Amino acid sequence: MNYIRNTKALQEQGLISADDTDLLNRVAEKFQISLSPEVIKNIAEPEIRQQYLPTKEELEIQEEELNDPIGDEKFTPVKGITHRYPDRVLLKPLHTCNVYCRFCFRREKVGQADEILKQDELENALNYIRERQEVWEVILTGGDPLSLSADKLASILDQLEAIDHVKVIRIHTRIPLVAPEKISDELLKVLDREKALYMILHCNSHKELSDNVCFGIKKLSRAGIPLLSQSVLLKNINDSVEKLEKLFRSLVAIRVRPYYLHHPDLAQGTSHFRVSLEKGRQVTSELRKSLSGIAQPLYVLDVPGGLGKVPAGKEFIQAKDDKTWKIQTIHDTFVDYQDYL
Ligand SMILES: *Cc1c(COP(=O)(O)O)cnc(C)c1O
Ligand code: SF4
Description:
Blueprint: H1 7-12, H2 21-30, H3 37-41, H4 46-52, E1 81-85, E2 88-91, H5 119-130, E3 137-140, H6 150-161, E4 168-173, H7 175-178, H8 185-191, E5 196-202, H9 211-222, E6 227-232, H10 241-253, E7 257-262, H11 277-290, E8 298-303, E9 308-311, E10 317-319, E11 324-328, E12 334-338
Helix pairs in contact: 6-8
This protein binds pyridoxal-5'-phosphate (PLP) and iron/sulfur cluster.
């Protein structure tokens, strides 16, 4: 089985109808399509299909939806680096992923031109880190850093390890969920490091945890890599107590500690995935009653405009009226947040 990267192949596989092809071609002009063999194998599951199969709803761009929903641009001192919090930076060596999730908060960026940092750009980004003693942690993200060749990834990790003040390396990835065959002995060797290397797996439904996927994740955990997860709260995919409970229990049972549950960002053409803050709070507080503490991620909202993530509970966010919320940011300032539902 091969990757599917266009509407023609989707139609050939019987995943979309000929009638829809014109509209979906318009979607594809704006947002890339990619489904991996592992995803295609499980595409009959609605929770998987909705994450990867393009739909005409994506053409409905709402006024409030943003090109840069979490405001990364302001915090990009050099290409490939996002530095919002003092002690940690994002390093984005590439903008491509093996799959393209329909709700991606970086969908304006991923899969577009300028896909991989050029050698001198990467060097500049690494120099930025070298010159800043306060950078304690480097978070490799993108794109999917595990889409890099083993050599390239090894070279980046070697260079990061050589920076004395960088004590922790974190990799955010979806590869173990969508391309488990990539967890090879060669990759495990590249990931075997002296410094602490954490991996955060992006997983939104227990349906993603097929036998193949669990096998790959077990290899990572046997290799001694601490594994955490992040999930996005998505309408119809996981926005119920039952579904989230199943997801988090399944993760903990394979030694993955749920870390964040993200409130969906205001990315373009994603309104059909959106869940209200009210609903998100209701399901997460319900979970508090029934679910083991080690299976509870923190529910967070990334405040538009680059103001950072805040816990979505009552401590930091209070209702002003039906749809407006008052948020206390990480800078202890207050901003209004609109729930567009
Ligand atoms: C999310 C994010 C991080 C990581 O935040 P943690 O709360 O440490 O997981 C770091 N930098 C940027 C710019 C981010 O958006
Ligand atoms: S894997 Fe992550 S960065 Fe890539 S398309 Fe999906 S959500 Fe976006």
